[in-house]
Design brief:
Order of helices and strands: HHHEEEEEH
Radius of gyration: 15 Å
Number of domains: 1
Strand content: 15-25%
Structural class: alpha+beta
Number of strands: 5
Strand order of the largest sheet: 1-2-3-4-5
Shape: globular
Distance between the termini: 23 Å
Helix content: 25-40%
Length: about 130
């Protein structure tokens, strides 16, 4: 799970809202906004996702919030899955690097879409019994 990482990442994205206003007073679209929108879009197809928790877990990785991270979790699709069986992946997003998933072995995989990242990590896939 991503809980330990989520607690140490810093301030929640909602506290950055005041820094997302341009000089003319218009609100600018941020990396956090984009990641939240992508999470919601994916959840419309991958209904096993914990969308509220994922959006609430978004945290900035840089002082200006140009790179963000989130813990996206889901319940396995398999009928035999235990009720408390939850899988998760730590997702990083920035406009320059797209979606990055760090593996437990320390490697990184870059994806063009959040959907591709989630499916590659088993979200929405029925497990072979």
């Amino acid at each position: 799970m991503c809980d330990a990482q989520r607690e140490t990442r810093g301030q929640p994205v909602s506290s950055l809202a005041s820094s997302c206003v341009s000089d003319d007073g218009a609100r600018q679209h941020t990396a956090a906004d984009e990641l939240a929108a992508q999470i919601v879009d994916c959840a419309s197809l991958l209904t096993c996702m914990n969308v509220e928790e994922a959006v609430e877990s978004i945290r900035p990785l840089s002082p200006r919030g140009r790179a963000v991270t989130a813990c996206v979790s889901w319940r396995p699709v398999a009928a035999a899955a235990a009720p408390d069986d939850v899988r998760s992946v730590e997702v990083q997003f920035s406009y320059t690097e797209a979606f990055v998933c760090r593996t437990k072995s320390g490697g990184e995989h870059v994806y063009e879409s959040l959907m591709a990242l989630l499916v590659a990590n088993g979200c929405g896939a029925a497990e072979a019994g």
